Amino acid sequence: MEKTLWQIYDDAQLAELDTLTADYKKFLDAGKTERECVTEVIRIAEKEGYVDLNKKDTLQVGDKVYMDWMGKSIVLFQIGEDSLEKGMNILGAHVDSPRLDLKQNPLYEESGFAYFDTHYYGGIKKYQWLAEPLAIHGVVVKEDGEKVEIVVGEDPEDPVLVITDLLPHLDRPYRKKAAEEFVDAENMDLLIGNRAKRGEDKDPVKAYITELLREKYQIEEEDFVSAELEIVPAGKARECGLDKSMILAYGQDDRVCAFTSLMAMLETEEPECTNCCILIDKEEIGSVGASGMTSRFFENMVAEIVALLGEYNELTVRRVLSSSRMLSSDVSAAFDPMYAEVYEKRNAAMLGCGPVFNKY
Asked: Residue 324 burial (CB < 10 Å; 0-12/13-18/19+)?
């Protein structure tokens, strides 16, 4: 077996790794959704001298700029000395992760329980989401246009939410099913309450929840139509293992690559070639939509950069794109001896041995 970083690094390098790990955990905690990730990236980047591209009238060598797209994707540029037509060095990763989303009319009552109706986003293993503490993150846009940011389930004083599971002596028929059939996605609704409103005969639990939403968050049931609310595991990133050698957290696919790409971008000084970092939404569902890579937003941002450098024309934009080089990052599976049969060990990535390059 190859030596791990724990064996190769000296004490100073290990201390630096510990610092990076601590910052990474903070990044995971601050960015459990793609919106929160983009907000956190902007906060970090601005501390390092990056400026919103919309505030610039011109660009010159050494400028550091960013542009977010719809609050869900972001691109950072550091202008180098070489002509842009020679291309850019690009790092790319995605900031969305598998999760559950609330439907547009989510709130309902059934048999004395209030629920939020959900659908899943990305390749979740449905059975992993049962009987686990869950949180809600997202935004609600009210009728008057006000955007309300909501996080429920992360503060120690907050309640958490749950998708129920069957007791062991009741689920025997379900255990015979394949894992992908064990849980019906349409039954993965979020249990949010059981307390009934006094004096209310029709849907008293729903009525109590509706009143609670109005008093605590100033939102009405109709506001859910224009909301974007995501269900994610509650709790902070934690060190894993008695030796604290690993990190257990939600969303590391692909925020581990987003974080390291961002750090590499911020630590680069006076590049000859223009550097670029793309942190993108919608990868988990095929990169579709206005904030995914199948849209034209990245080409449009490059065109803006070309224009602010004073050399815009369509041919220049095409030359910049065709001459650029990109390292597209995503997670890989490290060899797990508990599931050795699904790996080819001689060609598998080994945990703690450094970066992974997948040839095929």
From this structure: middle
